[in-house]
Design goal:
The structure holds 2 protein chains of 2 kinds. Chain A is an alpha+beta fold. Chain A folds into 3 domains: 156 residues, Aldehyde Oxidoreductase, domain 4 (2-Layer Sandwich), CATH 3.30.365; 171 residues, Aldehyde oxidase/xanthine dehydrogenase, a/b hammerhead (Aldehyde Oxidoreductase, domain 3), CATH 3.90.1170.50; 251 residues, 2-Layer Sandwich (Aldehyde Oxidoreductase, domain 4). Chain A contains 19 helices and 30 strands. In chain A, strand 21, helix 13 and strand 22 form a beta-alpha-beta unit. In chain A, helix 13 packs parallel to helix 14. Chain A is globular. Chain A starts with 14 loop residues before the first helix and ends in a 12-residue tail after the last helix. By secondary structure, chain B is an alpha+beta fold. Chain B folds into 2 domains: 76 residues, Beta-grasp domain (Ubiquitin-like (UB roll), Roll); 75 residues, [2Fe-2S]-binding domain (DNA polymerase, domain 1). Chain B is 35% helix and 17% strand. Chain B contains 5 helices and 5 strands; from the N terminus they run ββαβββαααα. A 5-stranded mixed β-sheet of chain B has the order 2-1-5-3-4, with helices on both faces. In chain B, a hairpin with a 2-residue loop joins strand 1 and strand 2. The longest helix of chain B has 18 residues. Chain B starts with 6 loop residues before the first strand and ends with a helix. The model of chain B has no long low-confidence stretch (mean pLDDT 94). The chains are: A alpha+beta, B alpha+beta. Chains A and B meet through helix 1, helix 3 and helix 16 of A and helix 2, helix 3, helix 4 and helix 5 of B.
């Protein structure tokens, strides 16, 4: 198939503005009459609020209003309503907003916030998800049983369990009875943060006619509108959300972030515009981050390496509030085994409250966590079987005809996992996955991980697009997808250009989204925008094209079948030298009068999610959704004297159906790999005994920096998704999924230990070689260089 | 918190234009560029000197505008991303996947621009030393390194 735009590395539509620094993010606009908010946050991780004294603060210069949780004690949450905009009665994490000040300047607001005095009575801390899920653990949410929630999740009242999703496939007892080899492992991933470069910012105002206008950094403007409408009983028509492009999202700007609080603050000052601009510290600690996870898994296989049974216990640590993590724990259950055919599966995936900063959607949506557990298990199993880990994966790789944990049958068009595994291994020169000595102190080893991700999207979600043709024959593409940096709007412009057979230069897209004027888009999350909006854009562009062809057909007095189009014109098939330009068709030249002024061509398109994923609450049986399959492999080099290491090469091979823009696709994959490498090796919140975060700034919360990245090796396999736009599937977050597992596998192989806890800092590697008791016994203290040999 | 109310009059040369401004003693250069002059290319992404999103050139040297007070740079020459037009490094970023969300891009481009001027033929270690002061969360740095290489090539070809 020959394409003119699809598959081409078209320069990004937002490119020129970005290299010139002129693109405006929400905090770059000037808002007249704006007031500024500062937020007083909790210094305790769990405590009763005994008193809040705002008397002195309210006397300070410039202060217009001070709000506390008592002033508007609503509960918010996308799936489970558990979080007040400001703490009510108690605080549940270090950094939780307790009071907010509105003042003429940010400095005055901050000075007043300093003067708010809060008295707490400490409550027992709930430190980790596994203990928190036990009966008798101190409760974070005593009223969990009374909270309202969506019926796709299952909270357990009088517990810390905000969701419990069960998968029961086959017969787990006989599955293990038929297994010759059984392994068990416990694993953990700490909580962390998206650390998007743009801190969250919201400006809310209530105009004199009652219109609530909110400029905000969000991935989900339409969802923000809907949730605010529900929380505050404001009709949808009275809310306008304006969302400029984002300085990174990664899931962290989905759902309600600062919007509800900003609205309340504006209300408190008579509707004047109020800006909340997160500092970096607030963005890391107060606002949502990445959940942690603990797991215990058992895998059983035959001597030949055929997996028979998997028993999987996932404890997702959502922190103090459930946010998206209730759904993340459910998504992880649906994909719980990783992309392997396992006949007998028993999985309990819990979302559990602890007194930590709360988590939300994060690139990978729970799949990185489950993959870390399963893929570590696969390596441990391979070791026990004495088998090449790659071979074990190839034997069990899911393929057409196999069933998922939810008993969906995989189809041919779902992609080719074996090829992904083989190519990823080839790219890093896998050989047999063994250890190579570079010199006396340096070893190299490889690790591999398979991956899959379901696009977990509700059935009643959809996307819409309009394509309007201007008098010069160029088109405007209107859609509600957010630009987060992923470049979807450029890819959508390519799709529209492809349908109309015009240059992408002649397709204009608009980066900001306005819920009053942009076609409805469910949310820019879950690597689904290209798939869903892509379908809507195809339909809209085809609709516009049909209208152009209708006009040409009238003009030539020929049926449409006798016409063809290309290069911005419609021509007669039999005599291509008889043609009319889109410009003329759109402008109406040659027809009656100049039609454009009263009869513009506007194409409409929509797409409604067809892949449902409702599952049975007791067994997990149901139909899941679109899967993207892939594999990742890394080569690491470890210094066995000081346990420092470097990931030399990282390979990712994914079956993405069809690459729409190779430059953008590679960018997404490499970016995901880098982010996951941070999660694997450096990124985690460190807590003291009071569960206060010790590294709440970018100085101490370590993200990857230039020069620390590996050589990235990326390949795509294209098994077309039958119903995808030009066969494409989502790819925005999939490449984050396998990296932590692959790195842990490689380092475990290198050191001959089992590294089941992230992040893999050198100390953790050293500790795996020298457990605390052993180290103490031989008088070794931390920081002393050691020799392995 | 102590509030500083003293106001000072300062002169700056920003992107080749002379500017006279009244600023608070506590105002950072970044705040003055963004809030007084509307030059919003530099971002307040950490205000702690950790991320480099606020990088500007002060007398041709990259500095973090969030760590410098406006009163400290009285009379000095400042270049922001808004003053950088059609340079090789900008073109290279555009054509080599040097950015995604664009938030860190002005800082990276200015730092790289100064690097290319100071070290037209630098090695990987020098590049790393210079550019480690900036954080990019989107690209995994691959595109940025490619852009730097491409800009060097363009400049070498241009000067032949």
């Amino acid at each position: 198939m020959f394409y003119s735009s699809i598959g081409k590395p078209i320069i990004r539509k937002d490119g020129i503005e970005k290299i010139n620094g002129s693109i405006k993010y929400v905090n770059d606009y000037t808002y007249s009459g704006v007031l500024y908010a500062a937020i007083k946050t909790s210094v305790l991780s769990h405590g009763k609020i005994k008193s809040i004294d705002t008397r002195k603060a309210s006397q300070l210069s410039g202060v217009r209003a001070i709000l506390t949780g008592e002033d508007y004690p609503i509960l918010q949450g996308c799936y489970l309503k558990d979080k007040p905009p400001l703490a009510v009665d108690k605080v549940r994490y270090y950094g939780e907003p307790v009071a907010a000040v509105v003042a003429d300047t940010f400095e005055e607001a901050a000075a007043a916030a300093e003067e708010i005095k809060i008295e707490y009575e400490p409550l027992p801390l709930v430190k980790n998800a596994r203990d928190a899920s036990n009966k008798g653990a101190p409760l974070l949410h005593e009223n969990l049983g009374k909270y309202s929630y969506k019926d796709t999740i299952q909270p357990e009242k009088n517990s810390n369990i905000a969701n419990h999703t069960k998968i029961r496939k086959g017969n787990i007892v006989s599955g293990f009875e038929n297994s010759d080899v059984i392994i068990e492992a416990s694993l953990s991933i700490p909580s962390g943060d998206h650390a998007a470069m743009e801190p969250r910012t919201t400006i809310a105002e209530i105009r004199s006619d009652g219109q609530v206008v909110i400029h905000t950094s969000t991935q989900t403007p339409f969802l923000v509108r809907k949730l605010l409408s529900t929380y505050f009983k404001i009709p949808v028509k009275r809310i306008t959300i304006i969302a400029p492009p984002l300085g990174g999202g990664f899931g962290g700007k989905a759902g309600i972030q600062l919007e509800a609080l900003a609205y309340l603050l504006s209300r408190a000052v008579g509707g004047r515009p109020v800006k909340i601009a997160n500092t970096r510290e607030a963005d890391l600690l107060m606002s949502a981050g990445r959940n942690g996870m603990e797991a215990t898994i058992r895998l059983g296989s035959t001597l030949e390496g055929r997996l028979q049974a998997a028993e999987l216990m996932y404890y997702f640590d959502c922190g103090a509030y459930a946010d998206y993590v209730v759904k993340i724990s459910r998504a992880a259950a649906i994909a719980c085994t990783g992309p392997y055919h396992i006949p007998n599966v028993w999985c309990d995936s819990l979302c559990v409250y602890t007194n930590k900063p709360y988590g939300t959607a994060y690139r990978g949506y729970g799949h990185t966590e489950l993959t870390f557990a399963v893929e570590r298990g696969m390596d441990i199993l391979a070791k026990k079987l004495g088998m090449d880990p790659l071979r074990l994966r190839l034997i069990n790789a899911i393929e057409a005809g196999d069933t998922t944990p939810c008993l969906n049958t995989m189809e041919d068009n779902d992609g080719n996992l074996r090829r992904c595994l083989e190519r990823a291994a080839d790219l890093i020169n896998w050989q047999d996955g063994g250890v190579k000595w570079v010199d006396e102190y340096t070893i190299r080893a490889s690790g591999i991980s398979a991956l899959w991700k379901a696009t977990i999207i509700s059935l009643n979600t959809g996307d819409n697009a309009l394509v309007s043709v201007d008098e010069d024959g160029s088109v405007n593409l209107h859609c509600g997808v957010m630009e987060l940096g992923q470049g979807t709007k450029t890819a959508l412009a390519q799709i529209a250009a492809e349908v109309l057979r015009i240059s992408t230069d002649n397709v204009k897209v608009f980066m900001p989204v306005n819920t009053d004027t942009s076609p409805y888009d469910w949310a820019t999350v879950g690597s689904r925008s290209l798939f869903m909006a892509g379908k809507a854009v195809i339909e809209a562009a085809e609709d516009a094209l049909n209208q152009l062809l209708d006009r040409a057909s009238n003009l030539f007095k020929l049926p449409k079948e006798a016409l063809d189009y290309g290069g911005g014109r419609v021509f007669v098939k039999a005599k291509p030298d008889i043609y009319i330009d889109f410009i003329k068709l759109a402008g109406g030249e040659g027809l009656e009068g100049n039609i454009i002024s009263r009869n513009q061509i506007i194409g409409r398109g929509n797409y409604k999610m067809q892949h449902k994923y409702e599952i049975d609450p007791e067994t997990g049986e149901g139909r899941a959704t679109i899967w993207t399959l892939g594999a990742e492999a890394v080569e690491v080099e470890v210094n066995i004297e000081d346990f420092s290491f470097k990931v030399l090469r990282a390979a990712c091979v994914m079956d993405v159906g069809k690459v729409i823009n190779p430059e953008l696709a590679r960018g997404q994959v490499v970016g995901s790999m880098a982010m996951a490498l941070g999660m694997a090796t450096t990124e985690s919140f460190n807590f003291n005994k009071g569960l206060q975060v010790l590294n709440g700034s970018l100085r101490s919360y370590k993200v990857l920096r230039l020069g620390e990245e590996p050589e990235y090796l990326v390949e795509f396999i294209e098994t077309p998704q039958v119903d995808g736009p030009y066969g494409a599937r989502g790819l925005g977050e999939q490449a984050a999924i396998g990296i932590p597992a692959a790195v842990a596998n490689a380092l475990s192989t290198a050191l001959g230990t089992e590294l089941n806890r992230l992040p893999l800092v050198p100390e953790a590697l050293w500790r795996s070689k020298y457990p605390m008791e052993e180290a103490n016994a031989i008088g070794i203290t931390e920081g002393i260089a050691l020799k392995l040999k | 918190m102590i509030m500083y109310h003293e106001i000072a009059e300062i002169s700056l040369r920003v992107n080749g234009e002379n500017r006279r401004l009244w600023v608070r003693a506590a105002d950072t250069l970044l705040a003055v560029l963004r809030n007084h002059m509307g030059l919003t290319g530099g971002k307040a992404a950490c205000e702690n000197g950790d991320c480099g999103a606020c990088t500007v050139l002060l007398e041709d040297r990259p500095v973090k505008a969030c760590l410098i007070l406006a009163v400290e740079v009285e009379g000095m020459d400042i270049l922001t991303i808004e003053g950088l037009k059609q340079t090789e490094i900008q073109r290279a970023f555009l054509e080599n996947g040097g950015f995604q969300c664009g938030y860190c891009t002005p800082g990276f481009i200015l730092n790289a621009y100064a690097l290319l001027k100071a070290h037209p033929e630098a090695d990987d270690e020098t590049d790393k030393e210079w550019l480690q002061s900036n954080i990019c969360r989107c690209t995994g740095y691959e595109g940025i390194k490619r852009s730097l290489k491409a800009a060097r090539k363009m400049m070498a070809e241009g000067s032949e």
